[in-house]
Amino acid sequence: MSKSVNSFWFMEFNAWRTADTYQYGYDYLRQSLGDSVLRGVLATPFDIALVDETYTSLQGAIALKLREKFGTKIIAFSTTGRLET
What we know:
Strand order of the largest sheet: 1-2
Distance between the termini: 12 Å
Radius of gyration: 16 Å
Largest sheet: 2 strands, parallel
Shape: globular
Low-confidence stretches: none
Mean pLDDT: 79
């Protein structure tokens, strides 16, 4: 059984396993707040934020800021397909 399959079926995932990923996103977001394009995005009251599950750290941080400020709904989707073995 591959390591990824074994991890998927037999490991217990919790917030502590992914916390670092989101911390990096928040740190990057905090350092990037001076960027005019990012400020424009964060000032726009979007109804929905679509977030690719593969790159959630920074996208997630931006989406959470939009939800906090405007009540933006967040949708996570997958752009990855099933890998045939």
